[in-house]
Amino acid sequence: MTKKAVIILSGGLDSTTCMGIAEREGYTCYPLTFDYGQRHKHEVEQAKKVAAHYEVPQHKIVDIAFLGQIGGSALTDSSIEVPDYTGSKEVPVTYVPARNMIFLSLAAAYAEVVGAEAIYIGVSSVDYSGYPDCRPEFIRSMTETINLATQAGIKEGNLKILAPLSHLSKAQTIQLGIDLNVPYHLTTSCYRGGESACGTCDSCKLRLQGFEQAGAKDPIPYM
């Protein structure tokens, strides 16, 4: 029987690495991308390119722009400026309230529809910007909740949330992705969302540091 997995695909480095890992593990991948009211759509366009690269059977793009209406994040509210990297571990203004909880809930619904047994999410608890919904305890809790709240969970009891990058540094993630021939040239990480990355926001800085520590050159353009 064909193994299926839903991949929460943002078009970024981490979620694209998850695509490579899932493919290596023998899963047929069903990427799920969210248009969540973010101030730029560049990441959605890059996710389309990543999905096409992997020749997936279906790439679902779901409009949940209500997160933009709720606001409260520099990624969804144009009145809040995206800051440059500071290295702080405090929860930053780029945190989108409850985003990963919402993403995983919808991914579980999609997994039921396509008959997937696993959901991949590219969160890390090592090199991250202080987001509470990237922690391993959150992933464990959501796994339990999803198996209590879905038909697949009640019948099979083994709908899995896989976060294979959780305990990897950004450099380790990148090295793994290079080994898997992940198309990093198709990805975007910049919080400011331009065609060329800014190089100064949290996400850009962590990405650039990761490539440097991995001894590799980042293939995307920077301002």
Write a structural description.
Strands 3-2-1-4-5 form a five-stranded parallel sheet, sandwiched between helices. It has a single domain (3-213), classed as 3-Layer(aba) Sandwich (Rossmann fold). It starts with a strand and ends in a 10-residue tail after the last helix. It has helices spanning 13-24, 42-53, 66-70, 99-114, 136-149, 151-155, 170-179, 202-213, and strands at residues 3-8, 27-35, 60-63, 118-120, 160-162. With 223 residues, it is of the alpha/beta class.
In terms of topology, how is this protein built?
Layout: E1 3-8, H1 13-24, E2 27-35, H2 42-53, E3 60-63, H3 66-70, H4 99-114, E4 118-120, H5 136-149, H6 151-155, E5 160-162, H7 170-179, H8 202-213
Parallel strand pairs: 1-2, 1-4, 2-3, 4-5
Helix pairs in contact: 1-7, 7-8
Primary descriptors:
single chain; 223 residues; alpha/beta; Rossmann fold; five-stranded parallel sheet; 8 helices; 39% helix; 11% strand; globular
Quick overview:
The chain has one domain: HUPs (Rossmann fold, 3-Layer(aba) Sandwich), CATH 3.40.50.620. 39% of the residues lie in helices and 11% in strands. It contains eight helices and five strands, in the order βαβαβααβααβαα.
